[in-house]
């Protein structure tokens, strides 16, 4: 059964968006993965199909109602659906390549996109939503975050990227950032190529790349070399 993404959103027209072009889009048309969207507003309250209300306790902004969101989830996802249910949220566990790979290998994902100030906490608990963040900054809605997460997953699905899909040497796959790349021309604005890459000696090239990857990781992301507890263990329970 191919990877299936079900998106709950107030803006279904944002999908597949950028995932409808290039290799992800070809994969979608070939049926290597699939996408369905569900308009949360269809489960809104009253004639105006209201989905949000004032925060309990006061304060700025609006909050997505738990009853509306739960109804949307229940209508879109059968109870025996085994796919992880995610809520895009800046409070969530930071998305990491290891987790992306695990999800890409699975049956797919249900992704709830928040809007406004966020969603009523009770639906997160009541529907076992796993909160996932794509970084320490605030977006205006969960849709772009969902597209980012899906792009990361979809490119790993067999057949989507062809030869490049192995990705074994890419940044994060071995706990390191990637080594620098070079191509033609052999000389450009006075800059040549690293000598090791011209040697034709595969062992020497591999060693050079490894050293460069270690150097770049040390300089830019020393946290990857001595992971904090947040980086350890499977990222399944959604608790940071
Ligand atoms: N008031 C919230 C931010 C709400 S932003 C707070 O301070 O935490 C509105 C919606 O955008 C969120 O519900 C979430 O779905 C989405 N969103 C914003 N930033 C995000 C991020 N870094 N990662 C994932 N989703 C994000």
Short description:
This protein has 240 residues and is of the alpha/beta class. The protein has helices at 22-30, 66-76, 97-104, 121-126, 142-154, 195-198, 202-220, 222-225; strands spanning 3-9, 33-39, 52-53, 63-64, 85-94, 108-112, 130-133.
Question: What do these coordinates show?
Answer:
The chain has 240 residues and is of the alpha/beta class. It folds into 2 domains: 3-154, Alpha/beta knot (3-Layer(aba) Sandwich); 169-226, tRNA(m1g37)methyltransferase, domain 2 (Trp Operon Repressor, Chain A, Orthogonal Bundle). Helix content is 31%, strand content 15%. The protein has 8 helices and 7 strands. It has helices at 22-30, 66-76, 97-104, 121-126, 142-154, 195-198, 202-220, 222-225; strands at residues 3-9, 33-39, 52-53, 63-64, 85-94, 108-112, 130-133. The strands form 2 sheets. It has a 5-stranded parallel sheet, sandwiched between helices. It has a two-stranded antiparallel sheet with strand order 3-4. Helix 3 (97-104) links the parallel strand 5 and strand 6 (108-112). Helix 3 packs across helix 5 (142-154). The longest helix is centred in the C-terminal third of the chain and has 19 residues, at 202-220. It is elongated and about 70 Å long. It binds S-adenosyl-L-homocysteine. S-adenosyl-L-homocysteine (SAH) is lined by residues 88-91, 113-115, 117-118, 133-135, 137-139, 141-142, 145.
